[in-house]
Structure formats: structure tokens, C-alpha cells
């Protein structure tokens, strides 16, 4: 079954700290993996896209990793800011362009 | 900038009403999608369209229909709204194998 599982379900950290969010998937055939940020009440916004051959990609303070062998990805946030409070969603795209969405990790940054 | 615009941010409808959710994109994208998002479930695909007048069922099409008479507009229709259709509805558009851009979402409450 094609599934994307994220952990933790929610996370609270202090402003300025780093954190890492996890994504495990059982999707095949694999095309690419995406991380989205979704602010409350808003649509998702893309952070990174990684194909099979890429194992790390950065976007400012966000760094995503991909291990296609173990089917795991992570999103690392460095020096968190209050504006990082959001849900972070991992999406795996199949070769037929079907998107398989994770349920997301809700991140709360406390001042 | 790509813009995907949904007609309403918040909507309250009565059980049994016919509900129209409108979505317009300005980037000449071929593909348009309707998702619903519920807590703990992630985004679930309702319907999508790869071309004008073309529609395909997604994962949860029951109780919904769609219309794509023009390339830039994709409408989601709830023929007879029910309380279990209370949700956040997200529209997205994309070109072939490119990033999907999302609208701001419509939070629908059926009472």
C-alpha cells in the first residue's frame, strides 16, 4: 500500500533551537519527494523537491535529506523563528504523477 | 507569481444545500485539483482535471462533482451538502510534472 508516515505528530521547541522532522514512505514507483509548509488556514507552500538521485537539498534554514534505499526523508530547521510555526507536510510523488500526502507534523515555536 | 484564487475563505451552508466552490488560476496550467484536508488525515484528492471538460475521480469523489468548462476555472460542487463534508477545501494547479500551487483554502462548515 502506498503510504507516507510522518513523525512526530506535533512538536514544540523554543525559538532559536533546531529541530528535525521525519518522513517514512512505502510509495512506488517513486518519482520525487516534496516538503511543504502550511500556515494555519492557508494552502501548502513548497519548500523543497528531491528526485531519486538527490540526497540533500537546502532552502535557507530548511534542509531536506532523502535516503531512497531506506525510503526515509527528514526536514531539518536551523535556528527556528516564530514564523516557522506551521504544519510541515511530506509528499511523495509516484511516476504517474499521483501525490501521496503525509498527515503532517505540527510545529510550534515558543518565544 | 502564480496565483490560484478560491472564491471564498469561509463558508457556512445548511444540510441539503447545493454548494459551489470556485477556483481560478492565472498561469495557463493544464492540471487542476481539488483536495479536502481534515485533522490527522492529510490532504485527500477529491477530483482532478488534466484538460478542459476532462475530469478524473480522485480518492474520495463520493458526494462531489466537478466542472471545468474553461482552462483557468475548476469548480467543485456538493450536490446536497452533509455535515461530514465540513472541511477545509484546497484547490491546486500545475503544469505537467511541475510543482503544484495551492489556493488559500475554503473552510466549509455544513450545519
Could you characterize the architecture of this molecule?
The complex is a heterodimer of chains A (111) and B (111). With 111 residues, chain A is mainly β. Helix content of chain A is 0%, strand content 59%. Chain A is built from no helices and eleven strands. In chain A, the strands form two sheets. In chain A, strands 2, 4, 5, 9, 10 and 11 form a six-stranded mixed beta sheet that branches. A five-stranded antiparallel beta sheet of chain A has the order 1-3-8-7-6, with no helix packed on it. In chain B, strands 2, 4, 5, 6, 9, 10 and 11 form a seven-stranded mixed beta sheet that branches. In chain B, strands 1-3-8-7 form a four-stranded antiparallel beta sheet, with no helix packed on it. The termini of chain B are far apart. The chains are: A mainly beta (111), B mainly beta (111). Chains A and B meet through β5 of A and β5 and β9 of B.
Individual helix count of chain A: 0
Rg of chain B (CA only)? 13 Å
Report the biggest beta sheet of chain B as strand number plus sense, adding barrel if it closes.
Answer: 7 strands, mixed
Unreliable spans of chain B are none
Shape of chain B: globular
Helix/strand structural class of chain A: mainly beta
Cα distance, first to last residue of chain A?
41 Å
Helix content of chain B: under 10%
Low-confidence runs of chain A: none
Q: Overall pLDDT of chain B, averaged?
A: 91
Number of strands of chain A: 11
Q: How does the overall form of chain A come out from the CA principal axes?
A: globular
Helix content of chain A: under 10%
β-strand amount of chain B: over 45%
Strand content of chain A: over 45%
Q: Mean pLDDT of chain A, nearest integer?
A: 91
Amino acid at each position: 500500500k502506498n503510504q507516507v508516515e510522518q513523525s512526530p505528530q506535533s512538536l514544540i521547541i523554543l525559538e532559536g533551537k533546531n529541530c528535525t522532522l521525519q518522513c517514512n514512505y512505502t510509495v512506488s514507483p517513486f518519482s520525487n519527494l516534496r516538503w511543504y509548509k502550511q500556515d494555519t488556514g492557508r494552502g501548502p507552500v513548497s519548500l523543497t523537491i528531491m528526485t531519486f538521485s538527490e540526497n540533500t537539498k537546502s532552502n535557507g534554514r530548511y534542509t531536506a535529506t532523502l535516503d531512497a534505499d531506506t525510503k526515509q526523508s527528514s526536514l531539518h530547521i536551523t535556528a527556528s523563528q516564530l514564523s516557522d510555526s506551521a504544519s510541515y507536510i511530506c509528499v511523495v510523488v509516484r511516476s504517474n504523477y499521483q501525490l501521496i500526502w503525509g498527515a503532517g507534523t505540527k510545529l510550534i515555536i515558543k518565544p | 507569481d502564480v496565483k490560484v484564487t478560491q472564491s471564498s475563505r469561509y463558508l457556512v451552508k445548511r444540510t441539503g444545500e447545493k454548494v459551489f466552490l470556485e477556483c481560478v488560476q492565472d498561469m495557463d496550467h493544464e492540471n487542476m485539483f481539488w483536495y479536502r484536508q481534515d485533522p490527522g488525515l492529510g490532504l485527500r484528492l477529491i477530483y482532478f482535471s488534466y484538460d478542459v471538460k476532462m475530469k478524473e475521480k480522485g480518492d474520495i469523489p463520493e458526494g462531489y462533482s466537478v466542472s471545468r468548462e474553461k482552462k483557468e476555472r475548476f469548480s467543485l460542487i456538493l450536490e446536497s451538502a452533509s455535515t461530514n463534508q465540513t472541511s477545509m477545501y484546497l484547490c491546486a494547479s500545475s503544469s505537467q510534472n511541475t510543482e503544484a500551487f495551492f489556493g488559500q483554502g475554503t473552510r466549509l462548515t455544513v450545519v
